[in-house]
Amino acid sequence: HYIMGPQHKRRKTEETVPFAWEVIPVLSDEKSQDVKLLTAYAAPIMNKKETSRLVKEVAALYPLSGLQHLKRVRACEEKSSPHPLEIILCLVSNVKDHSDADTVVSLSDLFSDRNIDCSGLGEPFLVQVPAHPPLTRPQFEKASCHWPTSFHEDKQVTEALTGQLFSTEEKAKMQGYMEKAIRTAKEGENKGMELVGAVLVDPNTDGVLAVAHDCRNSSNPLLHAVMVCIDLVAHGQGGGAYTYKDYPACTFAVMDRSHCTLAEKCLISIDREDCSESEDSGLPYICTGYDLYVTREPCVMCAMALVHSRIHRVFYGISSPDGALGTKYKIHTHTDLNHHYDVFKGIMERECQQLFLK
Amino acid sequence: MGSEAAGGNEAAFQPSAGEHKWMQRAFEMAKEALQNGEVPVGCLMVYNDEILGQGRNEVNETKNATRHAEMVAIDQVLEWCHQNGRDHAGVFQRTVLYVTVEPCIMCASALRLLKIPLVVYGCRNDRFGGCGSVLNIPADELQNTGNPFKCISGYRAEEAVEMLKTFYKQENPNGFRGAVAVRGSQKK
């Protein structure tokens, strides 16, 4: 009985967690950075009835410009505290230069020859306050340890961070696409190519639009798997710049469950284009609304090609040394660029790693 | 044996003395493109005082948003190497790009991967520029992305911008927006 216990337990765990990998969102620096802090003077409010008057007068003298996320007043942390509330008076940088930043001042230093009635305020003390509005729940929780802030929660980001954004069914589909990318990478290897594979998918129909392996060891050193994939989608829509007759594993409009013929597939693509053109301010970009699965993090050329192509989401397995979707750059969240996309990593991480090490 | 310059293949590579000549030619190409209702970007790849590639934007006809003039010109150089039995790596390392507008991030990365030594360009590209405007690909620390390269900028910049502005004003309503969004200081 004693021996059977843990074994039984382990099997149960495997049932509830069918995947050995997690989908990890690659968020912007703003969303993933640690909470930055500023030093401020705060003071106890000795008499609760003075609160609204004090907030008004202090805010008029020391507005917290650019720090609208900070609550001006907080309830006192300790229940046993003799005063119920505390108020931010000003940032230390509002009244002092760096040299003596951490010295405590008195109320008269802060409000000397100002028209403020300090009755009801206790002596000032130093406190750390969050410098930026929290953008994710982990940031909010850390920020709140220092001083209360407002928080407009993006539910999707919270779900992504806790691994709840994608259902088991969706993860099974991801696994299918990534397995296809890995298989294709191996086909490319047989042709002397680097072991990278990519699959482009329309998530609305689950249709696979293009499958590619890396072709950079061909006559064109820029034919990275992602560039090939983008061009194959263009082929599927009656365009395209290169031919792939020497690389039969690089395909577009692969027969899938919908059993479309090549011609039908092209028609569907053109229809879709027209639709997106009418509803989406005339942007008939070929990869609009599509997802890319790629075994390793794209380089900066490929990441920017995906911006130009208006990709919807990118899922990759492992990071690359000069990767542009998390490692060296975050092209997908760059505020100066006119298109952004969501990026997730970690899909079939171990299998992709094995490919890389081969 | 003599000492080799650190990291140097062709360390003493000098750009063609006819820099002005090639930029003038690039501007002529941009003007021609504008007159034909195409994106007014002129782009030349010059090796040994010979034009191996002259690209024009082919985003519309290929339905491939990566077909910027630079990428097209690169393919022409590759084709020339193929035809002439030359190793493309050696050729690109001695080829200069002359272009009327700053290459975008994608094209700058492609040029870096090919180890092009020098890019001479006209105006900045505030929306997508990869040679200093949005990112600085030629100078960034990227161990696995070819070689850093040198840029010379500002050649007839105002004229290059004016051509782009003129083009955007007469924007072809049937055209791919991709062709337009490729570069320049578009409205919005």
From TrEMBL, chain A:
Belongs to the cytidine and deoxycytidylate deaminase family. ADAT3 subfamily. PROSITE patterns: CYT_DCMP_DEAMINASES_2 (PS51747). CDD domains: nucleoside_deaminase. Gene3D superfamilies: Cytidine Deaminase, domain 2 (3.40.140.10). This is Adenosine deaminase tRNA specific 3. Its cofactor is Zn(2+). Keywords: tRNA processing. InterPro entries: CMP_dCMP_dom, Cytidine_deaminase-like. Residues 172-344 form the CMP/dCMP-type deaminase domain. It comes from the Eukaryota. One of its GO terms (biological process) is tRNA processing. GO terms for molecular function: tRNA-specific adenosine-34 deaminase activity. GO terms for cellular component: cytoplasm; nucleus. The keyword tRNA processing applies. SUPFAM superfamilies: Cytidine deaminase-like. The gene is ADAT3. It comes from Latimeria chalumnae (Coelacanth).
Automatic annotation (TrEMBL), chain B:
It catalyses: adenosine(34) in tRNA + H2O + H(+) = inosine(34) in tRNA + NH4(+). Its cofactor is Zn(2+). InterPro entries: APOBEC/CMP_deaminase_Zn-bd, CMP_dCMP_dom, Cytidine_deaminase-like, tRNA_aden_deaminase. Keywords: Hydrolase, Metal-binding, tRNA processing, Zinc. Pfam families: dCMP_cyt_deam_1. GO terms for molecular function: tRNA-specific adenosine-34 deaminase activity; zinc ion binding. GO terms for biological process: tRNA wobble adenosine to inosine editing. The keyword tRNA processing applies. SUPFAM superfamilies: Cytidine deaminase-like. It is an enzyme of class 3 (hydrolase). One of its GO terms (cellular component) is nucleus. Residues 17-142 form the CMP/dCMP-type deaminase domain. The keyword Transcription regulation does not apply. Its EC number is 3.5.4.33. Belongs to the cytidine and deoxycytidylate deaminase family. ADAT2 subfamily. Probably participates in deamination of adenosine-34 to inosine in many tRNAs. PANTHER family: CYTOSINE DEAMINASE FAMILY MEMBER, TRNA-SPECIFIC ADENOSINE DEAMINASE 2. This is tRNA-specific adenosine deaminase 2. The gene is ADAT2.
